[in-house]
Queue: 2 jobs
Job 1
Amino acid sequence: MHVEVVGRFLSGLPPDDDHPYRTGAWRPNHVEYDAVDLDVVGEIPHDLEGIYLRNTENPVYDAIGRYHPFDGDGMVHMIRFHDGRAEYRNRFVRTVGLAEEQAAGEALWAGLMEPPARSLRPDGWGARGRMKDASSTDIVVHAGRALTSFYQCGDLYVLDPRTLETRGRETWGGRFPAALGVSAHPKVDAHTGELLFFNYGTDAPYMHYGVVSSANELVHYVEIPLPGARLPHDMAFTEHYAILNDCPLFWDPDGIAKGVYAARFHPELPTRFAVIPRRGQSSEVRWFEAEPTYVLHWINAYEDGDEVVLDGFFQRCPAPAPRRGGTPYERMFHYLALDAMDARAHRWRFNLATGATKEEDLSDRVMEFGMINAQHGGRPYRYAYNMTGKPGWFLFDGIVKHDLVSGRETRYAFGDGIYGSETPMAPRPNARAEDDGYLLSFVTDMNADRSECFVFDASDIEHGPIARIRLPERISSGTHSCWAPAHTLQP
Ligand SMILES: [Fe+2]
């Protein structure tokens, strides 16, 4: 392995840090590397051509008050595959907020665990305001460039997908909705090259939906009026429709008026779904009602006759009771564990002819963070690749390949002390089947104090990785990821 250190950030974290999401498998990285000739166990497939990107909440400074695992600064880890070889880079996303904090030498904005009034700066980003847009939640590739995003709405940062250099903020030719920003989980339709997005906020109409063309022009932006401020995290699409959601877990309106942002679940209210033609107007939204829940992530959606079919992870326990025992931080962040939210793969069917909703569980297993072959995004599909969680923790201990036609589930377990990442699927060129391709996952191995990128044969995950690529340093566990085939990248 040939490693070059290209950047080094001075850590402002306490030397004796005891925060469970800044230590152990969540210990942040502050060195930026370029690495080539990586050591490989097994063989990298020669037909794997493209890049695997993963975003990470990777804090530089100690928090104002309590640190929440979603507050960390964005760091992108990337492996580029070409001709049976791999190269690795990692870079901080050069956000405006991080630059201001570097100039000040300390955190300037309070995070999710503290009221906005504790921020040192009067300005900021996020649906609740006065937060730092850390751009550390999600990453997609659209129009040949990588875009990072923030779960509470903010800018989209444009990164060169090969060098990870931050090129600045997306403008869409001056039409970017800068006041409200854009939520994490914009969706890219691999067939049209369009990017579909939404945002949300605390003022009416509370949500918007938009479309950006494959030529990177904002071509559609409409209001999705909601009854009040909501906390949608993800959206879905089919060939002809976009699907937005109004889950009954939201900030207490009385609290918002006092500057306190406390999310509460309302089991007396339905979950509502907005189905809108992809270029439709607000007046064309069809609303459907379903059992109350909160859904962090959708898996996919497609059309089936009169029905729009939507798959996602139904939380049986959207507001987990505080955990007994453990440290105060462990009790505090118990709700981030997949077993605490009790998330199960679930299917909703919205009948456009009758207005009826049908829904059912697809699995008894607790899973989340599902990925699919992107060629099947918005279209009928058979396989989802989901993550299982270490009980009590926001850490991934295994991958489940879920066959949605037969119901069969196969699993790869990383083993004690070894944690994977959200695992995207890279179809082979000229793939003969939906699962003809590879799965990619960055792995943090606490036993061996190292990180690797695992490559699986998507048709046989139980076999274990066919290639394990060593990284220069043990990297922090992280958040969303994507695969971008080489031919989709800007030259
Ligand atoms: Fe997410």
Note: The chain has a mean pLDDT of 97.
Job 2
Amino acid sequence: MGIKSDFRGEEGVKKFLEDKRKKYEKMDDKEKKEFDKEALENPYLDSRIYHIAEDKEIKKVLVGIDIEPAELLMAKEIGDIDLIIAHHPFGKGLAYLAEVMDLQIDVLNFYGVPINIAEGLMKERISEVARGVNSANHQRTVDAAKILKINLINSHTPTDNLSAKFLKNLIEEKKPERISDLIDILMEIPEYKEAAKIGAGPKIFVGDKENRCGRIALTEITGGTEGSPKLYEKMANAGIGTVIGMHISEEHKKQADESHINVVIAGHISSDSLGMNLFLDELEKKGIEIIPCSGLTRVSRNQK
Ligand SMILES: [Fe+2]
């Protein structure tokens, strides 16, 4: 599902994997030994299987945005949980978070930013992210899963792709003229409506509700985490008027402001929930019972 919704297209993802294989084949034996072979088949290295305690039929899953040892203890308390599915990565998935950010280069290029500029600015940011996640206590949750004998996986970029594609389709269909129209469209999505009730609904971070949207780009919903702040100027030059994102740092906000790009922040955990829900609907169709936790606003789009 993640590949089908990928902005690079299925062909683009295939090419990405082929390039990885070509690189691998050129490596010497020592490099090959150290190389993470999952990279040859999984285009989303921030999404993985972390622990298989028991390979059994999955009937009931506990699903959350951030899974920590507390949620694992909750699963034990509930009892018959066959698998825990997290959204945000930990362990090896977190260590490899920067690996999925290549996607953003192609997405930016799709929206008209020259490939050399997108590549140059993103490369800088990718290495920054790789250094940033280096200090984390990666294995904490994975260790707990091993001790408590719980099956544990996560899905980050595949489900963020679902969220991005869903929003892109909706916006292309509704064609909002002004920022206020865009906010109205987002507010019709149940996950954002729920978030708004607790004060975390869609918000204008840069621009004004009276502003016209211009070309709307979904460059910041998927692809690991925020790209380079230097990109806004380039995006403005490429003809982008409004960016819809999940979250934005102060530095990014400042740069967007200077480039006169409107920024609408749809919401972080709500956008994560949207993508997870589209995936969970498919599990539900297979008869799997879903227990949401840790920030996941579960909305089913299946016919009841
Ligand atoms: Fe997230």
Note: The first helix runs from residue 9 to 26.
